[in-house]
Amino acid sequence: MAMQRIEPGELPTRAEVLAKLFSKWSAPVRTERVRTEDALYRILAADVFSLCDKPVFRGSRMDGVAVDSERFKDGVPDASEWKLGTDYVRADTGDDFDDAFDAVIAVEDLEFLPNGGLKFNDDLEPVTEGAEIANRGDSIARDMLLCEKGTRLLAVDLAAIAMGAVSEIEVYKKPIAAFIPTGSELIPLGQLPKRGETVCSNSILAKCMLEEMGAVGLTFDPVADNPKELSATLDKALSDADIVILSAGTSKGSEDYCHTLLAERGELIFHGVASAPGRPMAGAIVDGKPVINVAGPPTACFNGLEWCVKAVVSKFCEQNPLKRHTVLATLSGDIHSGGVGFESFVRLKLEKTDSGYVAHPMPHRATRTPDSIRAEGLYITKLEPEAQSKGDVIEVELLR
Fold this sequence. Notes:
This protein has 400 residues and is α/β, with parallel strands linked by helices.
């Protein structure tokens, strides 16, 4: 039987799909406390304030010696017979020192003599009380805001938090996302495919992308195109995870059971989206949890994970999806619009030249799959048709 043609205008846009999904479902917000040093790339769930002052009392601003400024009131004294510990002490950057001394002189402005005395440079600036000394709280004040709620924590953020003596912080708990690859032709990695078989590569793609998004990726073994087996696996995934992703079985093939299963088991939110590759993907709410059915081809799977699943994962941390960096690039060939109300995800090979980036379109059906999935750049055509021709400059999302 011929597949009925669906015109682009009959399908919801990505924005409409997400708006409808989030009107039907709200992510449960859960937090946990973790050690500061274990929180790299986590999302901060509460503001963090310093528990201490820095310096705690005072500290030297530079490497040098601490002296009594009173001995400099009439000019630079003869310090050739001075004794370490009596007339001065070493005070390197950040060091506190004895209260008998109230100023610091940089090591570059003096010479240490063999007998322990000092010789100051002739052009030494006047030495006054408090010179080159950081007072209590000059660097960090107790109760100072160190990092704001919602921050995706990088190494520099964790270092700033540690400076305030904060050893534990509250972060959003990572959602668990279960990925179920479907298809009787699929075999696990580690086997060589025979005729009619295909290695399940989407599981690796999904697990790694989910971890990049901030979720815990839970991958299931490939499931055959069998409604009962699919339903049982879905039950298991729903009991173990916060989000479930089904791969393949969402189009109109004779063994495409996944979208039908979603309609039977829950509330089908959408089936089909005005975006390709990946147009036939679907989504539903089953047992109060979002179940996203992405298309099976690798680039289509990537697209569904990228725009839909990433948005769902972000909701668990009260975040907007993290945007990719972009560059401007000159097209080496034409990009054709998907039509009114339809978007095309165009993968690009990027070439860096002396005059900037050149973007080489990689036609979906004319590019080998490994080359396509490993593309450096991505351009999404507009819902309102807009010709992008050879020589035009476009904004490209960086995939690598």
